[in-house]
């Protein structure tokens, strides 16, 4: 028996090691039985959304979320293309009618007097967001969608204007970087990583961290291959999509509205407090 005991001990340690490894990689029931969820979002309704981003997503059969500014000339000029994108499953999210930002904050010299959120009333902000919903519904015929805060600004005079819009949307995306389990997500201010100049390897590394932690990862893109001061290189964007495609059995890639609806269901469940994304 004195020779058997070390063998049993070694076997026990091996079993524990394998179990720990499995626990790190097993699929999560929260994210459609996959390890994590990844949402690809694109802001501001610019030409490169239609010229670069959507064709890249379509080539991989991925669906993203495009946050449209209602007053953007690219919405008016290319409305049939936005409608076709929605028909292929991309979400047309709400990024407000005029994209107002708080001009009183540091580094906001780009904010014009007409679009200064600090000069808005809450009722004006809410009305413009709802007007943009009417426009988006006319394009895609849908009523369920998500909102993205222009410039990540949540308040007007200390008041959270989105509080009046909670019933208009499934959720709202913010600009604070972070990986969260479904139980940790605040659907009124969903974390996201703003992308500007990162390499493909850096983007993929974020995905790997989400896989390991079984969390939600939201990418916030503006320009893809140009078209905006905040930009990601086409090659880096392509590398990310290829990694997601190669690992799609482990990664749930879906529009923000679908992921937010899933999170809402999880958080409303009887064991919501115990959920580990």
Automatic annotation (TrEMBL):
UniProt GO molecular function: hydrolase activity, acting on carbon-nitrogen (but not peptide) bonds
Keyword list, A-Z: Signal
Cross-referenced Gene3D superfamilies: Glycoside hydrolase/deacetylase
Superkingdom, taxonomy of origin: Bacteria
SUPFAM superfamilies: Glycoside hydrolase/deacetylase
Keyword ATP-binding: no
Stretches assigned to coiled coil: none
Biological process according to GO: carbohydrate metabolic process
Residue span(s) of domain NodB homology: 36-254
InterPro entries: Glyco_hydro/deAcase_b/a-brl (IPR011330), NODB_dom (IPR002509), Polysacch_Deacetylase (IPR051398)
PANTHER family assigned: CHITOOLIGOSACCHARIDE DEACETYLASE (PTHR34216:SF11), PTHR34216
Protein name listed in UniProt: Chitooligosaccharide deacetylase
């Amino acid at each position: 028996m004195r020779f058997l005991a070390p063998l049993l001990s070694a076997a026990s340690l091996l079993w524990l090691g394998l179990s720990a490894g499995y626990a790190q990689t097993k699929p999560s029931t929260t994210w459609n039985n996959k390890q994590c969820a990844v949402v690809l979002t694109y802001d501001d309704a610019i030409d490169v959304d239609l010229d670069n981003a959507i064709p890249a997503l379509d080539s991989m059969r991925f669906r993203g979320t495009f946050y449209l500014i209602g007053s953007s000339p690219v919405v008016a000029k290319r409305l049939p293309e936005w409608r076709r994108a929605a028909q292929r499953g991309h979400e047309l999210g709400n990024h407000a009618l005029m994209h107002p930002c708080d001009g009183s904050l540091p580094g906001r010299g780009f904010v014009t007097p007409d679009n200064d959120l600090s000069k808005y009333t809450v009722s004006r902000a809410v009305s413009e967001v709802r007007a943009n919903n009417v426009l988006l519904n006319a394009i895609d015929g849908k009523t369920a969608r998500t909102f993205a805060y222009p410039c990540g600004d949540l308040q007007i005079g200390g008041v959270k204007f989105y509080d009046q819009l909670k019933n208009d949307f499934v959720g709202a995306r913010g600009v604070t970087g972070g990986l969260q389990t479904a139980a940790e997500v605040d659907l009124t201010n969903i974390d996201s990583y703003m992308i500007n100049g990162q390499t493909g390897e850096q983007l993929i590394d974020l995905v790997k961290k989400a896989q390991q932690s079984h969390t939600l990862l939201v990418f916030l893109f503006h320009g893809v291959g140009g078209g905006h001061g905040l930009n990601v290189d086409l090659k880096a964007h392509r590398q990310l999509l290829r990694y997601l495609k190669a690992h799609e059995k482990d990664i749930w890639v879906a529009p923000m509205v679908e992921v937010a609806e899933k999170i809402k269901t999880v958080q409303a469940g009887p064991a919501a407090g115990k959920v580990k994304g």
